[in-house]
Design brief:
Elements: H1 4-21, H2 27-40, E1 57-62, H3 68-83, E2 86-91, H4 94-112, E3 118-120, H5 130-136, H6 145-149, H7 161-175, H8 192-196, H9 217-225, E4 230-234, H10 235-243, E5 256-260, H11 266-273, E6 276-279, H12 280-300, H13 305-335, E7 339-342, E8 348-353, H14 361-392, H15 401-429, E9 439-445, E10 453-459, H16 463-471, E11 476-481, H17 491-497, E12 504-508, H18 514-517, E13 518-522, H19 532-547, E14 552-556, H20 560-569, H21 572-575, E15 578-580, H22 586-598, E16 603-607, E17 624-627, H23 638-649, H24 654-671, E18 682-686, H25 690-693, H26 697-703, E19 708-711
Parallel strand pairs: 1-11, 1-12, 2-4, 2-5, 3-4, 5-11, 13-18, 13-19, 14-16, 14-17, 15-16, 17-18
Antiparallel strand pairs: 6-10, 7-8, 8-9, 9-10
Helix pairs in contact: 1-3, 2-3, 3-4, 10-11, 12-13, 13-14, 14-15, 16-17, 19-20, 23-24, 24-26
Length: about 700
């Protein structure tokens, strides 16, 4: 039960916040504060402060304009502090992360009376590695002999003049305390290729053995995290921490209250996090390089003891694995009838999917040999890195501490890639339990200048993983988003995310008056969307008239091909109004669109799925949203196809249980591009009459925001 102390703290903070900001209370916001406080503030604990009983999870769908960040912060921060726990706020996008850290939380501190500290937690790859920078700037900028052997692993250290000037500026600013080593705080744009040479990852970092450990930007930031009440991070970092058992970088889940903002992304993020892939030919080439490089290394540095013995074994293991890789490449080449298939962004990629995730016996047999071989290679490389750590502690293992410090990042990189291959072949060849969803397994032709086959294995649902590693372990958790329900129910989200059956769920209303602010119209194009050519021609015919009166518009397509065809068939003068996704980055496209509207010009954005979510175009920037088709998932997606097979095998109807709810959710997200503030007005045109002609259409139509409707 919510304590009177916590209840009073939350009520006072909210009242003070509204007064200081001269705001009126929003019904949806108050409702959300109450729901979050009720669950996260009423968790029963034992004498040691650990949660007892069932998982404490609450899921709140809150529409645009609710003020979600203020609502969950005002409820969760006092709840966490009173319980002696840490609050981790995880988002799906960098933009929201930065908004919370730079705007929302400072604003809340100034105006609510709540006293708390907060910090942003980012991965190691966002921070400078001072040791790598030092190495680049050594006199003559010569590579070490070892790094030269491992150029193929990304250790090519020679730099051009422009990069050298950049790195020199970095060291000067660090020395003058004018930069903290964080990529995001560097004033100019840093190209990925330049940045990759001065950052590192877990496998290459020597940690406390590094001579620059005391000045390390990453460890300084990590140290700061141990002292704050609120940590803002992203979904991927939480998932990475949980995969390591929890508490590796972020606080222990048992002592953490989590908030997952943009929480509808969490299941897909978890699937991607536990998916595996490898390329057969490029991995075979890499194994050949290991054989060659370590043989050279041993010729230059004859070693005694365990380290020498293990290193001497690695080339032969790599040679044998390379042969097995070639066998697998030949077998897959003979087996696969690659067919072009579109991904969610309409890009075509040749794929071959194993139906039901079942792979042929001879492929499985080859895969098991590769699994066994990579297990041996990974184990050897792991033992090498362990011995190098001992050498860095001045234990006698055959190399000096200086030599070990130089070698460790190189062998750490080899270990990571070998382990990734072992994980892939483990997932690819494992026997799927009868009572659980199977792995999706497929092959695809890799992009590049030479023929290669990509092998993929991915879970089709993240529910069990999230249930085991997150919901059942965490002290408490809130999931929130503007789109958690599908067809008016949380069933879809429960299936995909694994939130407990008894998790509290709530939908709080948006402050927008949709019926007054917008119209949803469904014109009759006299063309079936399933006939792509006829539907495209109809869109070309009606689009100019539909958008004639609007300054800024957004046209959303489910297919890249249709988007391009519509653009190509429009009148040449009309095409000048259109900015089509793909020619520039998303950010640059949006900036160009806003600039055109600001100048009084007409601008029309053509976009795909990524423009249907997270795009903020208030006022004149988007007066009309046109949706070409009901956004059904691409039937060729291997994970979705495997999920549909599994549902059907269990006696379900994959179209009604997966395709329709998913399409409903995407359609709501697309409609959400129209109203971004309470002053916005406009029109949504859905050019797909299946919402009024098909039996499932009524359910989709009724799930959309309550705009005024105009149906031809």
């Amino acid at each position: 039960m919510l304590s009177s102390e916590l209840k009073n703290t939350i009520q006072t903070a909210y009242s003070q916040f509204l007064t200081n900001k001269e705001l009126k209370p929003r019904y949806g916001q108050r409702l959300m504060i109450a729901e979050v406080a009720k669950v996260l503030g009423s968790i029963e604990v034992d004498e040691e402060g650990q949660r007892t009983g069932e998982p404490a999870v609450v899921a709140v769908e809150a529409g645009t304009g609710t003020g979600k960040t203020v609502a969950y912060s005002i409820a969760a921060i006092p709840a966490a502090k009173l319980a002696g726990k840490r609050l981790v706020i995880a988002t799906a996008t960098v933009a929201l992360q930065e908004q919370i850290v730079n705007k929302d939380l400072p604003d809340l501190m100034r105006n609510s009376g709540l006293n708390f500290s907060f910090a942003l937690a980012k991965g190691r790859g966002r921070y400078l590695c001072l040791s790598k920078l030092d190495l680049l700037l050594q006199e003559g900028h010569a590579q070490t002999a070892t790094a030269q052997l491992f150029e193929e692993e990304g250790f090519k250290l020679d730099v051009d003049k422009d990069s050298l000037k950049l790195y020199s500026t970095m060291i000067e600013r660090l020395a003058g305390n004018r930069w903290d080593g964080d990529r995001d705080s560097w004033a100019q744009v840093l190209e990925d290729e330049q940045w990759s040479k001065v950052t590192t990852d877990h496998s290459q970092c020597t940690g406390r053995h590094c001579p620059n450990f005391g000045q390390c930007a990453f460890y300084r930031a990590r140290e700061g995290m141990t002292k704050v009440d609120v940590i803002v991070t992203n979904h991927d970092m939480v998932l990475a921490d949980l995969a390591l058992g929890g508490g590796a970088v972020l606080p222990d889940p048992r002592d953490t209250l989590y908030v997952f903002d943009e929480g509808h992304h969490l299941p897909d993020k978890a699937i991607n996090h536990f998916a595996h892939t490898t390329r057969l030919r490029s991995t075979a080439d890499w194994l050949g390089q290991i054989d060659k490089n370590i043989t050279k290394l041993l010729a230059q540095h004859p070693l005694q003891g365990d380290l020498g013995r293990i290193l001497e074994e690695i080339p032969s293991v790599a040679r044998e694995l390379k042969v097995q890789q070639q066998f697998m490449l030949n077998a897959c080449e003979e087996l696969a009838d690659f067919k072009l298939a579109e991904d969610s962004e309409g890009r075509e990629k040749p794929r071959f999917r194993f139906v039901g995730g079942v792979i042929p016996e001879h492929i499985e047999s080859l895969g098991l040999e590769l699994k066994k071989g990579f297990l041996g290679l990974t184990d050897s490389l792991n033992r090498v890195t362990d011995l190098l750590k001992k050498a860095m502690d001045d234990e006698p293992v055959g190399v000096s501490s200086v030599q070990a410090e130089e070698w460790f990042p190189l062998f750490g990189s080899l270990y990571t890639r070998s382990d990734a291959n072992f994980s892939l072949w483990s997932a690819f060849t494992t026997q799927d339990p009868e009572d659980s969803p199977p792995m999706a397994r497929w092959l695809s032709l890799a992009e590049g200048n030479f023929f290669d086959i990509e092998v993929n294995a991915s879970p089709i649902l993240a529910a069990q993983t999230l249930r085991r590693n997150l919901w059942n372990v965490a002290y408490g958790a809130l999931v929130t988003s503007a789109t958690l329900t599908a067809l008016g129910s949380f069933d879809r989200y429960r299936m995909r995310s694994g939130i407990p059956k008894d998790a509290v769920t709530a939908v709080v209303p948006s402050p927008f008056f949709h019926a007054d602010a917008g119209v949803l119209q469904i014109p009759d194009l006299k063309a079936d969307p399933r006939d792509s050519a006829a539907h495209t021609s109809a869109i070309v015919r009606v689009l100019p008239d539909l958008l004639e009166a609007n300054k800024g518009s957004l046209v959303l397509f489910s297919s890249r091909r249709q988007m391009q065809d519509v653009f190509d068939q429009l009148d040449r003068d009309w095409r000048k109004r259109v900015l089509i996704q793909g020619s520039l980055s998303r950010q640059e496209t949006l900036i160009k669109h806003k600039n055109k509207v600001d100048k009084g010009e007409v601008s029309v954005l053509f976009g795909l799925a990524s423009f249907a979510e997270g795009v903020d175009l208030p006022g004149d920037y988007c007066q009309h949203v046109v949706i070409a088709k009901i956004p059904f998932s691409v039937p060729d997606d291997p994970v979705e196809a495997a999920l549909a097979e599994w549902v059907e095998a269990r006696g379900g109807n994959p179209f009604m249980e997966i395709a329709v709810p998913d399409a409903s959710l995407k359609l709501i997200q697309a409609c959400g591009r129209l109203l971004r503030t309470e002053q916005d007005k406009g029109t949504i045109s859905l050019l797909d009459r299946r919402v009024v002609t098909q039996r499932y259409g009524k359910a989709i139509l009724n799930s959309l925001p309550p705009f005024a409707r105009k149906i031809d």
